[in-house]
Amino acid sequence: MSAAPLLVVDDIHAAYQSGVDILQGMSLSVPVGGFVLVIGPNGAGKSTLLKTVFGLLEPHRGKIALGDQAIGGLAPHEIKRLGVSYVPQELNTFPHLTVEENLRVGGWTIRHDAKRLRARMARIYEIFPVLAERRRDKAGSLSGGQGRMLSVAREMITEPRLMLVDEPTVGLAPNLADQVYELLQTARRAIPTTILLVYQNVSDALRHAEDVVMMNLGTVKAAGPVGQFGEDRVRELIQECLLG
Amino acid sequence: MSAAFKFPPSFHRSTIAILVAAALMMLAPLVTGDFGLHVLTISLYYVILAASWNLLAGYMGQFSLAHHAFAAVGAYTSGLLGYYLGASAWIGIPAGVAMAALFGLVLGRLVLRMRSIYLAIATWAFAETVHIYLTADYQFTRGELGLMVKPLYGNVDPLPYYFTFLALTVVVLIGLRALIDSPLGYFMRAIKDDELRAKSLGIDTTKVKITIFSISSAIAGLAGAFYGHFIVLLSPQMVDFSEMAKIVIMVVIGGFGSFLGPIIGAAPVQIVMTYLQSYGEWNLAMFALIVMVLMRFSMEGLASLFTPLWRWIWKRHA
Fold first, then answer.
1. What is residue A4's DSSP assignment?
2. Which residues pair with A214 in a beta bridge?
3. How far apart are CA A37 and CA A181, in angstroms?
4. CA 20 to 30 Å from B178, out of A173, B50, B113, B140?
5. Residue B74 contacts by C-beta under 8 Å, 6 or more apart in sequence?
6. Residue A90 has what DSSP assignment?
């Protein structure tokens, strides 16, 4: 991780219930333009990490910084305005709004800049022609893959500096999983943006990431460039996590 | 909000439908007498109230129980200005709208952070406060004695009032449709779908809710102010809970959350209630029963009967 960090998470502790910390001194650093993959067994605190960075959960200890600004304790909409997007695990489109309305809703922070909004809508439709075709359809009528595409595309409208993506292929057919990675890579090149991805299906995800952070019990188990995470090593690490 | 924005076909289609329906309604004086026109005029008042409440409850998911109170704020503002200062309706009505919007803004700031049931209770408490005030401070508001309001046109011939309310309804409905299809409209609908999700997109949901609440209150105030100059005698009865119940019944029978719902729900309910008036409160109980049965089987109401026809018409012109 040589480039200047965009996101620095330093020794954070966070809990859904006071006294039961899910994150127990978690630290990581995401370089500008990087693609960092967070892996780890179930319950390691991967999703909680993303929620905490996005302000959905407040850390009671430690620091989170975006560039040189501290963002720990800010509300999600404030963090969003600083250029951070969050794509949660569950499908997060608005089913009763049309595809176009969903995209426009994603553009709240640039709603007064008509020119920019128009240009970005056009760009999104260029990148994802399927969405252009279905722009007048309700998002609820899209297939799982298209819905996922819409969630990611909607986050791209604001051209975020950092995209937090949580298990983007949950509930999708295996052949669609590859398409989702394509989608994220497209977003990364097109904007360009930085990606912090949480994922369980390790072998799939490793092909796409640049850096890997392995979590266990709310803290870092191992971290480094993707080259250090061969299949054998990952298997060993996971065994260590599970068997103690 | 944004120049990149173009109204979708739904807006143009609805506008055409509203204008066609209004043109047909203009023929009503040919087939009905003064009493019929009077009932239709009052029905149009309820169309405006029901449609603007549906904006809040049906489109944004904010179940307010103070809509009738905002109508009363509009009516009493204009009525009192005329009674004490001799102000004309053309000053009183805008003042009534402004006052209702202001009350909406203040109440909205206080209650719109609350969730569903708390919001309903808080708005209901506000409405009851208005009711009690209008009754108790009778030296100023004339309470149950009734506040005399100057008629809009110097007489009480129902024809000009009917056309006035028809024009007002057309303007309000087209305005509401434009709002629903506008950027503010889809932010509002996104809040109904999932407020937390909307927040995580950076949307200032409280601001959107307060704006819509004030607009909806202002429309209720507008309807109320015109209504006052039509019925010429105001009483705190206007803020009786049965009035709110009536609005809810109209929307649910017509179709909750659909644009057409309150428009086609209001008149039948008002007409049937007018003819069942001799049964007093039983009138409301009967409608409550219909609402319960409807909610049990379908929330789509009468409007759903028109959906196939609507699709068929526009398919041919797509």
1. P
2. A39, A222
3. 12
4. B113
5. B93, B96, B97, B99, B100, B220, B221, B222, B223, B224, B225, B228
6. S
User: What is the spatial distance between Cα A35 and Cα A37, in angstroms, rounded to a whole number?
Assistant: 7
- CA-closest candidate to residue B258, choices B200, B201, B176: B176
CA–CA separation, A236 vs A233, rounded Å? 5
- Report the residue of B7, B201, B206, B208 to disrupt the A interface, i.e. the one with the largest count of A CBs within 10 Å: B201
- 3-class DSSP state of A7: strand
Amino acid (one-letter) located at B150: K
pLDDT tens-digit series, residues B135-180:
999 999 998 888 998 998 877 789 999 999 999 999 999 999 999 9
Contact A73, B197 (CB under 8 A): no
pLDDT tens-place string over residues B195-229: 888 888 888 889 999 999 999 999 999 999 999 99
**pTM, to two decimals:** 0.84
Residue A45, SS3 per DSSP? coil
The 8-class DSSP code of residue B57 comes to: I
Interface of B with A (CB under 8 A): 1-5, 8-9, 183, 186-187, 189-190, 192-194, 197-204
For A77, name the nearest residue in chain B, comparing CA atoms only.
B202
Quote the CA–CA distance of B285 and B282 in Å, as a whole number.
5
C-alpha distance from residue A81 to each of A13, A121, B285, B286 (Å): 24, 18, 50, 51
Give the integer Cα–Cα distance in Å for B80 and B95.
11
